[in-house]
Design brief:
about 375 residues, mainly alpha, 14 helices, about 75% helix, about 0% strand
Length: about 375
């Protein structure tokens, strides 16, 4: 299956926005912190929720591609698909834990167990694995059930916050750093992404171009536009004005609705063939190609300045830094390509470990057959 430019652009926008938003948070004076709140809250659809959604899209496309490979190649089986997937998730979790540890040491983070987006993605990938074999309708249903249940679970556990009891520990696990990407609030974004990814995989594996375009319109563009519009309206009306604070059920519906509209718009422009960018989308593509690498490395920018700029001055620093940061990864891409991509090495390590596990399994079977 070919790379989908719409998904690359969406992923790139998420990472570009996170880099930009974090710099405003780090450099802005506390007296002008309202600027960060405006930038971050109103751009939430391409923040953590967007990154989780597009991670789910990629996970589903990769899963379906490997299942297809397993059906065609005898040496590549379902165990290989499963092991690669889960090992990749475990490696990402290991990296996220190290990242949080250094954040505690050097960035004043309150603890190692923080629901920053990489940690949420890794655990969400593990949780999503048994659900990839279920129907798309069931996964959509489970997303909304989880979002609704999250409201009741939070209300139930809130009185136990800070207590050294079983329920206090459960609150800490589920809701530590509630302003971040808590698992019950953000796992559904990744799961919903698997529905989108599976749908796109089915559509883009159809040979006939006219049939593919018709299905893209019928199964993706129209449902996303209608569903996205309904969710945005509901999110704004329900519990107004909390639709943009990132943590309420209302905000989750608003964020998901905007994501549906944005992805359907990008698909219509790029993959449906209605508009061609003359220079492709290289500026955003670098952020997509190096998404994992940039997400981790952009924290180095934290150490450039203390919070010292007001709402006007900060633009004189953030914009030039973003330009230089983009040019840096343009140079890295041209010079090193995939070999500077952390995502590439995570996949390679997972594949190598999977191959070793499979070889060990086959050797064990041979030994058993010999004794029999």
């Amino acid at each position: 299956m070919k790379r989908l430019e719409s998904i690359d652009i969406f992923r790139g926008l998420c990472i570009f926005y996170m880099t930009f938003g974090h710099m405003i948070e780090w450099f802005i004076l506390r007296t002008d912190y309202w600027l960060y709140e405006i930038v971050w809250n109103f751009g939430a659809p391409i923040g953590g929720g967007g990154f989780l959604l597009v991670s789910g899209v990629s996970a589903a496309i990769s899963y379906k591609s490997r299942l297809l490979k397993a059906s065609q190649i005898e040496e590549f089986n379902f165990n290989t698909v499963r092991n690669e997937y889960l090992l990749r998730a475990l490696i990402i979790f290991f990296i996220s834990t190290i990242w949080n540890f250094f954040g505690v040491l050097f960035m004043n983070l309150p603890g190692i167990w923080l629901w920053f987006v990489i940690q949420t993605i890794s655990i969400s990938l593990m949780m999503a694995w048994p659900l990839l074999k279920t129907s798309k309708v069931f996964r959509i249903f489970l997303c909304f059930v989880t979002w609704i249940a999250n409201e009741f679970i939070l209300a139930w556990l809130l009185p136990y916050q800070g207590q050294e009891t079983l329920l206090g520990v459960l609150f800490y696990f589920l809701y530590n750093t509630p302003d971040q990407n808590i698992i019950l609030g953000y796992f559904p974004f990744l799961l919903m992404g698997t529905v989108i990814g599976e749908t796109l995989f089915e559509i883009f594996n159809i040979e006939d171009q006219n049939e593919r375009k018709e299905l893209l319109k019928k199964k993706m563009f129209i449902p996303s536009m209608i569903g996205g519009t309904i969710l945005v309206i509901f999110g704004i009306i329900y519990l107004f004005p909390n639709f943009n604070n990132k943590q309420t059920f209302s905000s989750h519906m608003f964020i998901l609705g905007i994501e549906f509209l944005l992805i359907s718009f990008l698909i219509y422009l790029k993959d449906y063939g209605k508009f061609k960018f003359k220079k492709n989308y290289k500026v955003i593509y670098y952020y997509s190609f190096y998404s994992f690498t940039i997400f981790l490395s952009h924290d180095l920018l934290f150490f450039l300045f203390p919070p010292r700029f007001n709402a006007v001055e900060i633009w004189l620093y953030v914009i030039p830094i973003m330009i230089l940061w983009t040019l840096l990864f343009r140079f890295i891409y041209k010079k090193y390509g995939k070999y500077a991509s952390l995502k590439f090495f995570v996949s390679k390590i997972a594949t190598d470990l999977t191959n070793k596990i499979e070889i060990a399994r086959l050797n064990k079977l041979k030994v058993i057959e010999t004794f029999e």
